[in-house]
Amino acid sequence: MGPWRCLLLLPLLAPALRAQQQQFMEYVERRLTLLEERISQWHDQSSRYSTELRDFKNQVLGMLEAAEKEREAMRAEAESAAVRVDRLEREVDYLETQNPAPPCVEVDETLMDKQVATAKQRKNEKYTKLTDCSDTIASVRAMKILKRFGSTSGLWTKDAAGSSEKIYVFDGTANDTVYVFPRMREFTLFSATRKAARIKLPYPWVGTGHLVYNGHLYYIRQQGLSFQVIKFNLANKTVVDSSVFPAEEQIPVFGLSPSTYIEVSADEEGLWAIYATKEDEKNMCLAKLDPASLDIEQMWDTPCPRENAEGAFVVCGALHVVYNTRLPSRARVQCVFDVSGTLAPEDASLVYFPKRYGSHSSLKYNPRERQIYAWDDGYQIIYRMEMKKKLEV
After folding, report:
1. Model confidence pLDDT, tens digit, residues 278-298
2. CATH classification code of 131-389
């Protein structure tokens, strides 16, 4: 096709090209318009979401500020309550000092000499059993270390006669404040003494030979060269009775516990006192106590030596003395004295304690549970005992 023919076709194709171009521009314009609408819609939604997010953030910040204010208010209330409790404790202590418990009866020398003479007359007399208890310890069935609490020497126990589950803790060998936990669980879980109730005694104790028995605390007070047994009512926090122990020139009853002069023990037959005097300084003595009047019912000299002894307890009228062995992890009962004569020393079981850390500062036998609450170098331990009849051992 020649050039002149192309020139002739141009006027004919121009309208078609312009129409296609117009359609393409309209299509592009429509697409741009749709894209602008979508961008505008996205912008509106984004603005709305930003506004909602800002409002939510402000709401959360307000809630956090309110929670922080409430937390501060609760903290202030807790601190105020703690201050009030401390003030109340000080007021109670002040009232106790202003209205002290009935004082211990001061025994004059004539009366004390009479008591000593009576006690000597009752010494080594034939013992009349109060019960038909015929059990003795065969072995230590189990040992459980609960926790470490307080100083290296102390005492922890339950009521040996009552049904209370309270735990009484005597920290140290010379103090006047007893810690009371409502149950074993609280004593085990909480290490802080602020979780425990406190009983402030009218007189400080000495040693670790104290006992909780039938709602009363029997503890030892030193007054000069003599020692008193104080009977303290745990319910109304008053001294019910007191008695000078009728023994002359007392010395520490256990060679490894020099602060303990009298060990008050409980068994199935009642209360006992384990002590020692210069008259027979090598061996221990045993006395039967009347829990109501604190009178000495009877006294015995025992063949159990004080040397290397770390503690003792009574089971069914038989004194069991625990000694340290050469092995640092063992302690054992090496001397048994049965006041009724039913159990001969050679027939008694050789009981080993699977201890531990150091030396027992206290061993409290609980006749209701048939187990021993021990304090060993600051650790509180329970020994569960396996029992047998005396005639079967």
Report:
1. 988 899 999 999 999 999 999
2. 2.40.128.630
